[in-house]
Design a protein that fits this description.
7% strand; alpha/beta; four-stranded parallel beta sheet; 7 strands; three-stranded parallel beta sheet
Length: 415
């Protein structure tokens, strides 16, 4: 794709700005359903939310719609349903709630929509509909309620014990007890993809960075918030913020895309928790250290053809596209081959928004399509910056046809 870095994105988002559009209405984000009630009807039912707009072959973009195979599962259908319940023309039901939960909230549909207000804000009412479902007792889905209960009890959604959260931590990892920098590991790296946590910690040690991992770390609350359980998620967030502020933490590094988005965007902008802590995702940190010369990469080439998968939570949700690619391009021997759908047009891995827990068939459908797209590039590995995406690919790759790696694991190999 030509000159990707020149694309202009919405503020703090990875959704591209529509150009040559006059009089776009400027609205607040993270508001309730009532706030957006005058926009839903603007949907033109044109179908651009189904495919990559104006791209060769118009490849499909919505896992929910392609799996559900009915209009209700695409953004256009969801807009109509949202308008209907907001004007009392349709009553809430379990079936209606299920339609809105059968969606990873990847925001690919909003990227494709060419109606300015829907393009800019549809993600806000997709979340507001989940909040309303919870308020009315139709949400979350039973599987999501189950892991929420465990998060409230044991601080993770994986049915693991909180006391085991740091079992992955090797004895050779050096921490500084009074460091102002913390590594927020996250639940997936702590319990499922521990190689990411180990690689990240070893990279920090190799850079002689003073950091620490707080025993008080809890689930960031993303799995709870993304399923519409805003009040419960906020209470979890408040405990995290208090623990890190009380510890004197001024900066947090994350290796999880969901944790990054939650700490940097959801905490202050949805929950009103202006914690004042600097939040940095690992690829941002690595690129900074490469540019300063502090991070030294070996000149020994290990030829490897890779393709990069854009996690939704740092991509369309937060606008981090180039930093991981810039790091990968600095590694000798790496050949980066892009999938047709990349950056703001990337196909979702299918694991977010509570989909993987409640709608496993949809989740696997999305993952398998992305894996097949990666294989078509002839890459030997699919690389990402999200342990949730990594775990999703590992669970769906068959017969070792392609590797799944995290950026942290790849960088650790060459320093």
């Amino acid at each position: 794709m030509s000159d990707e870095k020149s694309i202009e994105y919405l503020e703090c988002k990875g959704i591209s700005k529509l150009t040559n559009v006059a009089n776009q209405e400027i609205l607040e984000r993270n508001e309730n359903l009532e706030y957006y009630k005058d926009i839903f009807y603007q949907c033109g039912k044109c179908g651009t939310c189904r495919t990559v707009y104006q791209q060769n072959k118009w490849p499909r973009i919505c896992p929910s719609g392609e799996f559900g195979k009915f209009e209700a599962y695409y953004l256009g259908g969801k807009n109509l349903l949202t308008w209907a319940v907001s004007t009392d023309k349709l009553k809430w039901s379990e079936k209606l709630a299920k339609i809105f939960y059968q969606c990873s909230v990847c925001l690919a549909c909003t990227q494709q929509c060419q109606i300015p207000e829907i393009h800019n804000y549809a993600g806000e009412w997709l979340m507001a509909m989940r909040e309303k479902a919870v308020q009315l007792g139709f949400g979350p889905m039973p599987e999501q309620a189950k892991y929420t209960e465990h998060i409230l009890k044991e601080n993770n959604p994986y049915m693991e014990n909180h006391e085991d959260r740091l079992n992955w931590l090797p004895s050779h990892i050096k921490q500084t007890p009074d460091a102002k920098l913390a590594y927020f590991v996250g639940c997936t790296s702590s319990y499922r993809e521990q190689g990411v946590a180990i690689a990240t910690s070893e990279i920090l040690n190799s850079l002689q960075v003073d950091f620490r991992i707080l025993k008080e770390e809890k689930c960031c609350s993303s799995p709870v918030y993304m399923t519409g359980q805003t009040e419960k998620a906020k209470k979890i967030a408040e405990k995290n913020v208090k623990a890190f502020k009380d510890a004197g933490i001024e900066k947090i590094i994350t290796s999880c895309a969901g944790c990054y988005r939650t700490w940097k965007d959801t905490y202050p902008n949805k929950f009103g928790l202006d914690h004042g802590i600097e939040i940095v995702h690992l690829p941002e940190f690595l690129l900074e250290k490469l540019n300063s010369g502090e991070l030294k990469i070996s000149n020994n080439k290990t030829p490897l053809k890779i393709t990069y998968h854009d996690p939704c939570h740092i991509g369309r949700h937060m606008g981090i596209y180039e930093q991981p690619r810039d790091v990968l391009k600095r590694i000798p021997g790496i050949e980066l081959i892009e999938m047709d759908r990349n950056r703001q047009n990337a196909w979702c891995c299918g694991s977010g928004g509570g989909v993987r827990s409640a709608f496993n068939e949809l989740s696997s459908f999305a993952a398998n399509e992305r894996i097949e797209e990666a294989k078509m590039t002839t890459a030997e590995a699919i690389v990402s910056c999200c342990p949730f995406c990594l775990n999703q690919f590992k669970n769906n790759i068959k017969n070792n046809e392609i590797q799944a790696l995290d950026l942290s694991e790849l960088v650790k190999r060459v320093i």
